[in-house]
Structures are given as structure tokens and as C-alpha cells.
Amino acid sequence: MTRFLLLLFLLLLCLNQTFGQEIVWQFKTADRVYSSPALDGNMVFIGSGDHHLYAIDKTTGKEVWRYKTGGAVHSSPFIWNNFVCVGSNDGYLYAIEKSSGQLIWKFASEGEKMYDLWDYYLSSPTGNSDMLFWGSGDSNLYAIVAQTGDLAWKFTTGGIIHASPVVKENNLFIGSYDGQFYCLDVDKGSLNWKFKTIGATYFPKGEIQKAALVKDDVVYFGSRDYNIYALNAKTGIGMWNMRQPSGWIIATPMEYKNNIYFGTSDAHKFYALEKVNGTSQWTFPVQMRVYGSAIAYNDVIYFGTFDGKVIGVDYATGEKRWEYQTESSMANFSKIYNENGEFKEGFELYGKELLASEKAIHALGSILSTPIIADETIYFGSSDGNLYAVKL
Q1: pTM for the whole thing?
Q2: Which of 389, 385, 252 lies closest to 324 in space, CA to CA?
Q3: What is the pLDDT of residues 2-13, one digit of tens each?
Q4: What percentage of the chain's residues is helix, strand, coil (to nearest 5)?
Q5: What's the rounded Cα separation, in Å, for the pair 128 and 182?
Q6: Which of these, 100, 3, 95, 79, lies nearest to 37 by C-alpha position?
Q7: How is residue 77 annotated by DSSP?
Q8: Handedness of CA 176, 178, 181, 183 (dihedral sign)
């Protein structure tokens, strides 16, 4: 009996640690989580494909409240004063009281739509002292009075807007699936400038799927035309672009110590570029797409992958320093990959069984969520439906 209890204890210990990393807690939702967590005090907020916005105790991982919308919540929460604001696939932007989970107001767009199978995210709101800004599948960017939920102005583009807007001083920056990147006046919604992506053979629009990074008067963003762009934030004139030949650049770039960091889609690489001129500093090979953004902590760059891993690499060299693999990934990895970490014979990413392949990938606990770190703990969502809190 004693030996049995010892074996049981060791088994439970193994289930709660991966690559030496200790799970603090994991919170289970009823569908995939593409949303990125937002921290406020002792609360962590996250959306799920099960239509809910969740508030979870950061220390214990216990649910504090949940709010049900009419569609998948693949937008990331934004904290505005005592509100948690989030978009839903039902076409509404919601403002929820952050301590009680009660609805303050909701704002109706003209309706959501999905561009294609890989259009995983909804636009996440952002704001300033009195306004919220939010994009929609109806091709509009909305400026909304934060206190009341009333429309201040809207700007119409030529495509779906699932990228998240970025506010910098009196400018608002947003990309669209029409392949245009826009700079607008925050107060009036008037156009300051726009920039057209180059396009590619099979993706002539050069769709922009996620948010830009605006840093030191430069705008950085990726496109489905395989390029990452750097534009002058004041004029919209191109400063440099880097094209990698094997796939989309979806992830919002992250800046750290004069480098720009981002993952790629089918190139299966993570890049560090010199931010001044786009010169490659190093690349790190991954086994699946990277759509979520990276974060930096203590000179380590952390990012999630579609194969169910969060990886930490040295900011200067690209050497691996840390890794966490979800239980879903460990359980299903051998269904897609052989012992050398390559796709098994017969598995195709974009073959005849496209939907089945994509489902198998998400069964790995794909991490499309951008992690956040607090108190030596990293928080992130997964396609296995969990929000994870893992000790660094």
C-alpha cells in the first residue's frame, strides 16, 4: 500500500510539472482560448470561445465571476478605470464592471464576420482618458465614449478589421484585411495617412491581421504578404521591410533592447531583427506557427507556439532558456510528429484533409494567446480551453 501511494504521488507530481516547470494552477473553460490575459490587481481576465469573459483570482486560480456574451470571445480584455472591455463574435463590444461582473453597457457594430479558417482573433479594444477604440468585422473602426458606450465617430476601411488599434498621442494606428495600414486623428477620426502593403502571389491584398507596434516614432507590423514593415509614424513613409519567403507574419512585433522580435506562420521561425534597419540578428526554429506576440522578462523572450509550447530564448543569442509544454501537447504530439520532431508521413498542413489537420493541431493545446508575467509567474491561454499559471 505504501509503494502504491508513493507511485501515485510521483505520478501526480509529474502531471503538474513539465520540463521542470511548476504549474501554479490551470483554469478550465469550455472552449478554445485565443484571448490574451489581462491582469489588474489580484484578478486576471480572459475570454474564451465558450462565449464567456472570465474573472479569475490570480493567486488561487478560482473563478470570481463570468459574463456570458452571444458569441465567442476571441478578443483580449482591456481595462478602463473600473471597466473590463471586450469584443465578442456576436458583434458587440461589452463594458463589464470589473469587481462584480455586471454589464455597464454594450455597443453594437454592424455585425461580425470571419475572413477564413486562420482568422482566429477579434479586435481588442484600447483607449485613452475618455474614449475607447475598437475594430470590427464590418470593416469599421469605432470611437466610443467610454463612460456611456455612445458612438463618437467611425472610420470605414475596405476590409475586415480584426487587428487591434494602437493609440499614440493624438494618432490612432490600425491595419485592415484590405491590406492598408491607416493613421487617423484620435479626436475626429480623419485620415492622416495610409500605407498599402506590397502583396504576394497568392495573397495580393497583403492582409494585416493583428496590431502594430508603435515605438520611437516608428510603426512596425506584419502582413500576410510575408513582410514585416517599418514606417515613419508621422508620415507613413516606409523605412524598411523584411520579406521571409515561407509564410505570413501575423504576430504583433515586440521591441526589446534595440531589437524587434516576432514569430512567423509557415516559415516556423522566430526572428530577432535590428529595429533600425531590419537586419536579422538571429532566428530560432520552431515546429509550428507563432501568431501570438512575445514578451520580455529578465533578458529572456517568451512566446507561444501552435504545437502547445511556451518557449523562452535569450534575447541576444536566441538560445533556449525555458520551455513549458501543455499536457495536451505531450499526449497528442506523436500523432503529428515523429521522433525527430518532423511531420509524420501522411500528415499535411494544407492537404485535402485541411479541417482535420487544423483540428489535430489545436488538439496540441495551441497557444495563440500572448503571455503575461507577474510575480515570477507566466499566464497564457490555450486551445485546450485552459488558462495556465506557470512558475518561471
Answers
A1: 0.94
A2: 389
A3: 554 444 444 444
A4: 10, 40, 50
A5: 18
A6: 79
A7: P
A8: negative
